[in-house]
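Review box. Two proteins, two foldings.
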Amino acid sequence: MTRHVPKIELLLSPGCAHAEEAVNLVQKTLAEVKVAAEVSETLIDTKKMAKELKFLGSPTIRVDGRDIEPGAEERQDYGLG
């Protein structure tokens, strides 16, 4: 039986004031619940990239491709700033 390893994505814009806090929150949460996960950080620095990745704002945290922010799936206001 193969165990599922969650994929956690942090999408961040340049100069995001909350980036470090978001990274620390993810790490702390994973340690508390004792879950191993694949964690990646992506810097979103162009409007094109923001649209392609459906970037709603910084920081964005996704688990297995789903934004953790309630209601994010209904939004389409992708972009920077």
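Next protein.
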Amino acid sequence: MKYLCDNNRHLICLPYSKGNLHKMANKLGIKRCWFHRDHYDTPKRRVDEIKNKCKVVDSREILTIIRQDG
């Protein structure tokens, strides 16, 4: 599974699905309260840590993936 994030703290994964989003969050230790309908937000105090585990992409790319696969 690949993790993608943007500079606005939005976090998704590929392959994209809500089930995979929850698996990703579990592996990263992100609580379910950070889930927002179709993505996770990165907790502010963990931004650098999680960015190091992700490919940083443009917000538009995240939106495109969500729209195509969500």
